[in-house]
Specification:
Oligomer: single chain
Order of helices and strands: HHHHHHHHHH
Strand content: under 5%
Helix content: 55-70%
Structural class: mainly alpha
Mean pLDDT: 75
Distance between the termini: 24 Å
Largest sheet: none
Radius of gyration: 18 Å
Shape: globular
Number of domains: 1
Number of strands: 0
Number of helices: 10
Length: 236
Amino acid sequence: MHSLPLVMCIFQKRQRAHLCLSAFLRKTATDGGKTGTYTVKGLSSGAKGGERMDDLQIIGLFFARSEEALRETQAKYGKLCFRIAQNILGSDADAEECVNDAYLSLWNTIPPQRPLNLAAYVARLVRNISLNRLRFNSAAKRNVQAEVSLSELADTLPDHLAQAELDKRQLGKLISAFLWREPEHSRNVFIRRYFFLDSIQDIAARYSYSESKVKSMLFRTRNRLRNYLLKEGYEL
């Protein structure tokens, strides 16, 4: 059984892991194409049948304070949001509640926020709310898949950050810069595993890879990220 200090260290590193990936998706949602627009392959609404509003129209409805904005968001991104939450929590009921909380947060933050990538923005809200719920759930109810995914990435991140908030932002920027340089297939797999917390099996099925190939890709990308952070002056 882990000692309390070790458990706290593991927990803090997992927390840094999801904060840094959130910083990457926040950049995707707000950079406006200044450094190029990147969307994870597979980050789609899942909505079928009929034409859906584009994101600019939906955001316009938020600014007009029309409840139609929430209905359109749910129709376009509801399946994506539920999958993210369910992957983290392993409970349909908890996932549904977190998605609803994310919609409320969306309503409360737009305006003044005007995200340029609505899918990335709402995905980040759902993920952060779901991870907060996971943190407060009892140990017996925690989703092992989520814990394993975050632990894998946490082992790549620094143990100590001197100036917590500033360094989290800087680390997030570095991880973002690293991911922009990665080949698309490596980046897609990395984000599906460590942001959306998909299982190895689901990622393999999504991209028609073998499970061993997915594991190998993740291992190599983590090693490249580790070396990149070392070159940038982080002690791992």
